[in-house]
Design a protein that fits this description.
- It is built from 11 helices and 14 strands.
- By secondary structure, it is of the alpha/beta class.
- The chain has an 8-stranded parallel β-sheet with strand order 3-4-5-8-9-10-11-14. Strands 1-2 form a two-stranded antiparallel sheet. A two-stranded antiparallel ribbon has the order 6-7.
- Strand 10, helix 6 and strand 11 form a beta-alpha-beta unit.
- The radius of gyration is 19 Å and the shape is globular.
- It starts with a strand and ends with a helix.
- The structure holds NADP nicotinamide-adenine-dinucleotide phosphate.
Length: 328
Protein backbone atom coordinates (compact mmCIF):
# COMPACT_ATOMS: atom_id res chain seq x y z
CA UNK A 1 0.00 0.00 0.00
CA UNK A 2 1.53 3.31 -1.11
CA UNK A 3 1.72 5.97 1.57
CA UNK A 4 2.23 9.71 1.61
CA UNK A 5 3.17 12.09 4.40
CA UNK A 6 1.03 15.22 4.58
CA UNK A 7 3.82 17.71 4.03
CA UNK A 8 5.78 18.83 7.04
CA UNK A 9 3.12 17.67 9.52
CA UNK A 10 4.50 14.14 9.53
CA UNK A 11 0.92 12.81 9.36
CA UNK A 12 0.91 9.65 7.25
CA UNK A 13 -1.95 8.86 4.87
CA UNK A 14 -2.63 6.40 2.09
CA UNK A 15 -1.54 7.79 -1.28
CA UNK A 16 -5.22 7.90 -2.21
CA UNK A 17 -7.88 9.70 -0.21
CA UNK A 18 -11.60 9.97 -0.80
CA UNK A 19 -13.58 13.20 -1.20
CA UNK A 20 -16.92 13.42 0.59
CA UNK A 21 -18.69 16.23 -1.29
CA UNK A 22 -21.09 13.96 -3.20
CA UNK A 23 -22.12 11.95 -0.13
CA UNK A 24 -23.41 15.16 1.48
CA UNK A 25 -26.53 14.79 -0.66
CA UNK A 26 -28.62 17.65 -1.96
CA UNK A 27 -28.14 21.31 -0.98
CA UNK A 28 -28.57 24.54 -2.84
CA UNK A 29 -27.54 28.17 -3.12
CA UNK A 30 -29.84 31.07 -2.24
CA UNK A 31 -31.34 31.04 -5.75
CA UNK A 32 -32.21 27.36 -5.55
CA UNK A 33 -29.40 26.14 -7.81
CA UNK A 34 -27.99 22.73 -6.83
CA UNK A 35 -24.64 22.61 -5.02
CA UNK A 36 -24.72 18.90 -4.29
CA UNK A 37 -24.56 15.87 -6.56
CA UNK A 38 -28.19 14.85 -6.39
CA UNK A 39 -29.75 12.25 -4.15
CA UNK A 40 -27.51 9.82 -2.28
CA UNK A 41 -28.19 6.74 -0.20
CA UNK A 42 -26.62 7.33 3.23
CA UNK A 43 -26.40 3.64 4.06
CA UNK A 44 -24.50 3.03 0.83
CA UNK A 45 -22.22 6.00 1.62
CA UNK A 46 -21.41 4.48 5.02
CA UNK A 47 -20.71 1.10 3.41
CA UNK A 48 -18.50 2.80 0.84
CA UNK A 49 -16.40 4.61 3.46
CA UNK A 50 -15.97 1.39 5.44
CA UNK A 51 -15.00 -0.50 2.30
CA UNK A 52 -12.40 2.17 1.56
CA UNK A 53 -10.87 1.66 5.01
CA UNK A 54 -10.87 -2.11 4.47
CA UNK A 55 -8.96 -1.54 1.24
CA UNK A 56 -6.34 0.50 3.08
CA UNK A 57 -7.53 4.04 2.35
CA UNK A 58 -7.04 6.14 5.48
CA UNK A 59 -7.64 9.71 4.28
CA UNK A 60 -11.05 11.40 3.93
CA UNK A 61 -11.74 14.97 2.88
CA UNK A 62 -15.02 16.69 3.70
CA UNK A 63 -16.30 20.21 4.47
CA UNK A 64 -18.85 21.62 6.87
CA UNK A 65 -20.87 22.98 3.97
CA UNK A 66 -21.20 19.70 1.98
CA UNK A 67 -24.87 18.92 2.38
CA UNK A 68 -24.82 21.68 5.03
CA UNK A 69 -23.36 19.33 7.62
CA UNK A 70 -24.65 16.06 6.23
CA UNK A 71 -21.38 14.85 4.73
CA UNK A 72 -19.59 15.27 8.06
CA UNK A 73 -22.35 13.38 9.87
CA UNK A 74 -22.27 10.48 7.43
CA UNK A 75 -18.46 10.30 7.54
CA UNK A 76 -18.52 10.46 11.35
CA UNK A 77 -21.01 7.60 11.47
CA UNK A 78 -18.93 5.51 9.06
CA UNK A 79 -15.69 5.82 11.03
CA UNK A 80 -17.21 5.72 14.54
CA UNK A 81 -15.09 3.49 16.76
CA UNK A 82 -12.15 3.68 14.32
CA UNK A 83 -11.15 7.33 14.68
CA UNK A 84 -7.44 6.63 15.19
CA UNK A 85 -7.27 4.55 12.01
CA UNK A 86 -8.25 7.43 9.74
CA UNK A 87 -7.03 10.92 8.92
CA UNK A 88 -9.87 13.41 8.54
CA UNK A 89 -9.68 16.72 6.71
CA UNK A 90 -12.52 19.20 6.75
CA UNK A 91 -13.02 22.83 5.70
CA UNK A 92 -14.55 26.05 6.92
CA UNK A 93 -15.30 29.48 5.50
CA UNK A 94 -18.79 29.06 4.03
CA UNK A 95 -21.93 29.74 6.01
CA UNK A 96 -25.13 27.77 5.60
CA UNK A 97 -28.56 27.07 6.97
CA UNK A 98 -28.88 23.43 7.98
CA UNK A 99 -32.67 23.61 8.29
CA UNK A 100 -33.11 24.55 4.62
CA UNK A 101 -29.88 22.96 3.26
CA UNK A 102 -28.89 26.32 1.81
CA UNK A 103 -25.58 28.11 1.38
CA UNK A 104 -25.87 31.59 2.87
CA UNK A 105 -22.45 33.18 2.31
CA UNK A 106 -18.88 33.18 3.57
CA UNK A 107 -17.24 34.12 6.85
CA UNK A 108 -13.46 34.48 6.99
CA UNK A 109 -13.18 36.21 10.33
CA UNK A 110 -10.80 34.66 12.89
CA UNK A 111 -13.65 34.42 15.42
CA UNK A 112 -15.70 32.22 13.09
CA UNK A 113 -12.97 29.57 12.73
CA UNK A 114 -13.57 28.28 16.23
CA UNK A 115 -17.36 28.39 15.86
CA UNK A 116 -17.15 26.40 12.63
CA UNK A 117 -14.68 23.89 14.06
CA UNK A 118 -16.81 23.25 17.16
CA UNK A 119 -19.77 22.33 14.93
CA UNK A 120 -17.60 20.19 12.66
CA UNK A 121 -16.12 18.18 15.54
CA UNK A 122 -19.58 17.54 16.95
CA UNK A 123 -20.94 16.30 13.62
CA UNK A 124 -17.92 14.08 13.05
CA UNK A 125 -18.12 12.75 16.60
CA UNK A 126 -14.48 13.49 17.36
CA UNK A 127 -12.50 15.87 19.55
CA UNK A 128 -9.80 16.72 17.02
CA UNK A 129 -9.35 17.20 13.30
CA UNK A 130 -6.22 16.11 11.45
CA UNK A 131 -6.33 18.80 8.78
CA UNK A 132 -8.44 21.97 8.68
CA UNK A 133 -8.69 23.81 5.38
CA UNK A 134 -9.86 27.28 4.48
CA UNK A 135 -12.60 26.75 1.89
CA UNK A 136 -12.73 30.27 0.47
CA UNK A 137 -10.11 30.06 -2.28
CA UNK A 138 -10.22 33.79 -2.97
CA UNK A 139 -10.11 35.10 0.61
CA UNK A 140 -7.95 38.21 0.92
CA UNK A 141 -4.32 37.93 1.99
CA UNK A 142 -5.11 40.18 4.97
CA UNK A 143 -7.87 37.83 6.13
CA UNK A 144 -5.56 34.85 5.58
CA UNK A 145 -2.88 36.26 7.88
CA UNK A 146 -5.39 36.50 10.73
CA UNK A 147 -6.81 33.06 9.95
CA UNK A 148 -3.32 31.56 9.95
CA UNK A 149 -2.80 32.81 13.49
CA UNK A 150 -6.22 31.52 14.53
CA UNK A 151 -5.29 28.08 13.15
CA UNK A 152 -1.95 28.09 14.98
CA UNK A 153 -3.89 28.70 18.18
CA UNK A 154 -6.16 25.73 17.44
CA UNK A 155 -3.06 23.57 16.90
CA UNK A 156 -1.66 24.70 20.27
CA UNK A 157 -4.95 23.67 21.90
CA UNK A 158 -4.84 20.22 20.25
CA UNK A 159 -8.09 20.78 18.35
CA UNK A 160 -6.43 20.43 14.93
CA UNK A 161 -3.14 18.79 13.98
CA UNK A 162 -2.44 20.89 10.89
CA UNK A 163 -4.13 23.24 8.44
CA UNK A 164 -4.10 24.30 4.82
CA UNK A 165 -5.99 26.24 2.16
CA UNK A 166 -8.18 25.07 -0.66
CA UNK A 167 -7.00 27.52 -3.28
CA UNK A 168 -5.60 27.56 -6.80
CA UNK A 169 -3.53 30.68 -6.09
CA UNK A 170 0.09 29.85 -5.28
CA UNK A 171 0.82 33.28 -3.80
CA UNK A 172 -2.05 33.03 -1.35
CA UNK A 173 -0.85 29.59 -0.32
CA UNK A 174 2.72 30.84 0.10
CA UNK A 175 1.45 33.40 2.59
CA UNK A 176 -0.54 30.79 4.50
CA UNK A 177 2.44 28.43 4.53
CA UNK A 178 4.38 30.89 6.69
CA UNK A 179 2.51 29.29 9.58
CA UNK A 180 4.61 26.37 10.88
CA UNK A 181 1.64 24.00 11.00
CA UNK A 182 0.32 24.86 7.55
CA UNK A 183 1.03 21.62 5.72
CA UNK A 184 -1.17 21.24 2.67
CA UNK A 185 -2.82 22.95 -0.25
CA UNK A 186 -5.92 21.52 -1.83
CA UNK A 187 -6.12 22.43 -5.51
CA UNK A 188 -7.82 21.54 -8.75
CA UNK A 189 -5.59 19.06 -10.52
CA UNK A 190 -6.22 16.36 -13.10
CA UNK A 191 -4.88 15.09 -16.41
CA UNK A 192 -6.69 17.83 -18.28
CA UNK A 193 -5.96 20.63 -15.81
CA UNK A 194 -2.32 20.81 -14.84
CA UNK A 195 -1.35 22.84 -11.80
CA UNK A 196 2.40 23.54 -12.17
CA UNK A 197 2.57 26.66 -9.97
CA UNK A 198 1.00 25.04 -6.93
CA UNK A 199 2.98 21.85 -7.44
CA UNK A 200 6.24 23.82 -7.58
CA UNK A 201 5.30 25.58 -4.35
CA UNK A 202 4.54 22.24 -2.69
CA UNK A 203 7.97 20.93 -3.72
CA UNK A 204 9.67 24.10 -2.50
CA UNK A 205 7.96 24.22 0.91
CA UNK A 206 7.22 20.51 1.45
CA UNK A 207 3.45 20.85 1.41
CA UNK A 208 1.04 18.06 0.55
CA UNK A 209 -0.68 18.59 -2.80
CA UNK A 210 -4.23 17.40 -2.20
CA UNK A 211 -5.89 16.98 -5.58
CA UNK A 212 -9.55 17.84 -5.91
CA UNK A 213 -11.53 17.08 -9.06
CA UNK A 214 -9.10 14.29 -10.00
CA UNK A 215 -11.76 12.68 -12.19
CA UNK A 216 -13.00 16.00 -13.66
CA UNK A 217 -16.26 15.51 -11.77
CA UNK A 218 -16.80 12.08 -13.29
CA UNK A 219 -15.83 12.90 -16.91
CA UNK A 220 -12.49 11.13 -16.51
CA UNK A 221 -14.27 7.84 -15.88
CA UNK A 222 -15.44 7.93 -19.50
CA UNK A 223 -19.06 7.27 -18.56
CA UNK A 224 -20.42 10.69 -19.54
CA UNK A 225 -20.60 10.99 -23.28
CA UNK A 226 -22.26 13.56 -25.58
CA UNK A 227 -25.83 14.37 -24.59
CA UNK A 228 -25.71 12.63 -21.18
CA UNK A 229 -28.22 14.16 -18.76
CA UNK A 230 -27.65 14.68 -15.06
CA UNK A 231 -30.45 14.70 -12.48
CA UNK A 232 -32.06 17.98 -11.40
CA UNK A 233 -30.46 18.09 -7.95
CA UNK A 234 -26.97 17.56 -9.40
CA UNK A 235 -24.68 20.58 -9.70
CA UNK A 236 -23.52 19.24 -13.06
CA UNK A 237 -27.08 19.68 -14.46
CA UNK A 238 -27.01 23.44 -13.86
CA UNK A 239 -23.31 24.23 -14.07
CA UNK A 240 -22.18 27.38 -12.27
CA UNK A 241 -19.83 29.77 -14.10
CA UNK A 242 -16.62 28.15 -12.81
CA UNK A 243 -17.44 24.66 -14.05
CA UNK A 244 -15.86 23.74 -17.35
CA UNK A 245 -16.51 20.00 -17.55
CA UNK A 246 -20.28 20.21 -17.98
CA UNK A 247 -22.50 22.69 -19.84
CA UNK A 248 -26.27 23.16 -19.83
CA UNK A 249 -26.29 20.59 -22.66
CA UNK A 250 -24.33 17.92 -20.79
CA UNK A 251 -20.64 16.98 -20.86
CA UNK A 252 -18.43 19.62 -22.52
CA UNK A 253 -17.60 18.24 -25.98
CA UNK A 254 -14.00 19.54 -26.06
CA UNK A 255 -13.22 17.88 -22.71
CA UNK A 256 -14.75 14.59 -23.81
CA UNK A 257 -12.65 14.71 -27.00
CA UNK A 258 -9.44 15.28 -25.06
CA UNK A 259 -10.24 12.41 -22.74
CA UNK A 260 -10.79 10.11 -25.69
CA UNK A 261 -7.44 11.22 -27.10
CA UNK A 262 -5.56 10.06 -23.99
CA UNK A 263 -7.76 7.07 -23.16
CA UNK A 264 -5.39 4.51 -24.62
CA UNK A 265 -2.35 5.67 -22.63
CA UNK A 266 -4.33 6.02 -19.40
CA UNK A 267 -5.84 2.56 -19.68
CA UNK A 268 -2.64 0.81 -20.65
CA UNK A 269 -1.57 -2.13 -18.53
CA UNK A 270 -5.15 -2.99 -17.56
CA UNK A 271 -6.09 0.18 -15.67
CA UNK A 272 -9.59 1.58 -16.02
CA UNK A 273 -9.78 5.20 -17.19
CA UNK A 274 -10.42 6.42 -13.62
CA UNK A 275 -7.45 4.41 -12.34
CA UNK A 276 -5.28 5.89 -15.10
CA UNK A 277 -6.34 9.42 -14.18
CA UNK A 278 -5.31 8.77 -10.56
CA UNK A 279 -2.04 7.18 -11.70
CA UNK A 280 -1.22 10.31 -13.73
CA UNK A 281 -1.49 12.45 -10.59
CA UNK A 282 0.82 10.17 -8.61
CA UNK A 283 3.32 10.33 -11.45
CA UNK A 284 3.44 14.12 -11.31
CA UNK A 285 4.95 14.30 -7.82
CA UNK A 286 5.49 12.27 -4.68
CA UNK A 287 3.57 14.93 -2.78
CA UNK A 288 0.23 14.40 -4.55
CA UNK A 289 -2.76 12.85 -2.82
CA UNK A 290 -5.75 12.53 -5.19
CA UNK A 291 -9.12 12.59 -3.41
CA UNK A 292 -11.72 11.30 -5.88
CA UNK A 293 -15.35 11.66 -4.87
CA UNK A 294 -17.60 8.61 -4.70
CA UNK A 295 -21.22 7.68 -4.24
CA UNK A 296 -21.12 3.90 -3.82
CA UNK A 297 -19.01 0.85 -2.93
CA UNK A 298 -18.30 -0.02 -6.56
CA UNK A 299 -16.68 3.38 -7.21
CA UNK A 300 -14.58 3.06 -4.06
CA UNK A 301 -13.41 -0.40 -5.09
CA UNK A 302 -12.48 0.73 -8.59
CA UNK A 303 -10.66 3.84 -7.44
CA UNK A 304 -8.84 2.08 -4.60
CA UNK A 305 -7.83 -0.49 -7.21
CA UNK A 306 -5.54 2.18 -8.65
CA UNK A 307 -3.18 1.62 -5.71
CA UNK A 308 -2.19 -1.80 -7.03
CA UNK A 309 -0.97 -0.29 -10.30
CA UNK A 310 0.90 2.71 -8.85
CA UNK A 311 1.91 5.79 -10.87
CA UNK A 312 2.18 6.02 -14.66
CA UNK A 313 5.70 5.80 -16.04
CA UNK A 314 7.45 9.09 -16.97
CA UNK A 315 7.30 8.22 -20.68
CA UNK A 316 3.53 7.73 -20.43
CA UNK A 317 3.16 11.16 -18.81
CA UNK A 318 5.29 12.62 -21.62
CA UNK A 319 3.13 10.88 -24.23
CA UNK A 320 -0.02 12.33 -22.67
CA UNK A 321 1.55 15.79 -22.66
CA UNK A 322 2.38 15.45 -26.34
CA UNK A 323 -1.13 14.26 -27.22
CA UNK A 324 -2.85 17.02 -25.24
CA UNK A 325 -0.63 19.80 -26.55
CA UNK A 326 -1.58 18.76 -30.10
CA UNK A 327 -5.30 19.02 -29.26
CA UNK A 328 -7.29 22.13 -30.27
N1 LIG B 1 -13.24 23.99 -3.20
C1 LIG B 1 -12.95 22.82 -2.72
O1 LIG B 1 -12.32 22.72 -1.70
C2 LIG B 1 -13.33 21.57 -3.46
C3 LIG B 1 -13.94 21.66 -4.71
C4 LIG B 1 -14.23 20.48 -5.38
C5 LIG B 1 -13.94 19.25 -4.80
N2 LIG B 1 -13.37 19.20 -3.56
C6 LIG B 1 -13.03 17.91 -2.94
O2 LIG B 1 -12.51 17.03 -3.92
C7 LIG B 1 -13.29 15.83 -3.96
C8 LIG B 1 -13.28 15.23 -5.35
O3 LIG B 1 -13.54 16.17 -6.36
P1 LIG B 1 -14.93 16.22 -7.11
O4 LIG B 1 -15.98 15.78 -6.16
O5 LIG B 1 -15.02 17.55 -7.71
O6 LIG B 1 -14.92 15.21 -8.29
P2 LIG B 1 -14.10 13.99 -8.87
O7 LIG B 1 -13.37 13.29 -7.82
O8 LIG B 1 -13.35 14.51 -10.03
O9 LIG B 1 -15.30 13.09 -9.40
C9 LIG B 1 -16.02 12.33 -8.47
C10 LIG B 1 -17.31 11.80 -9.06
O10 LIG B 1 -17.06 10.95 -10.18
C11 LIG B 1 -17.93 9.82 -10.14
N3 LIG B 1 -17.07 8.64 -9.94
C12 LIG B 1 -16.07 8.48 -9.02
N4 LIG B 1 -15.44 7.30 -9.18
C13 LIG B 1 -16.04 6.69 -10.21
C14 LIG B 1 -15.83 5.45 -10.85
N5 LIG B 1 -14.87 4.64 -10.46
N6 LIG B 1 -16.64 5.13 -11.89
C15 LIG B 1 -17.61 5.96 -12.29
N7 LIG B 1 -17.85 7.18 -11.72
C16 LIG B 1 -17.08 7.53 -10.69
C17 LIG B 1 -18.89 10.04 -8.97
O11 LIG B 1 -20.03 10.80 -9.37
P3 LIG B 1 -21.24 10.24 -10.26
O12 LIG B 1 -21.37 8.77 -10.01
O13 LIG B 1 -22.40 11.01 -9.83
O14 LIG B 1 -20.86 10.57 -11.69
C18 LIG B 1 -18.05 10.94 -8.06
O15 LIG B 1 -18.81 11.71 -7.19
C19 LIG B 1 -14.65 16.27 -3.42
O16 LIG B 1 -15.43 15.18 -2.98
C20 LIG B 1 -14.23 17.19 -2.32
O17 LIG B 1 -13.84 16.45 -1.18
C21 LIG B 1 -13.05 20.34 -2.89
Amino acid sequence: MAKRVLGRSGVEVSALGFGCWAIGGEWRDGEGNPLGWGKVDDEESVRAVRRAVELGVTFFDTADVYGTGHSERVLGKAVAGHREEVVIASKWGNTYDEATSTLTGTNTTPEYVRTALTATLKRLGTDYLDLYQLHDGGASPEAAEHLREACEELVREGLIRAYGWSTDDAERQRLFAQGPHCTAVQHQFNVLEDSPDILALCEELNLASINRGPLAMGLLTGKYQKGARLSDGDIRSTPPGWMRYFTQDGPAADWVARIEAVREVLTSGGRTLAQGAIAWLWARSELTVPIPGFRNVAQVEENAGALAYGPLRPEQVAEIDAILSAQP
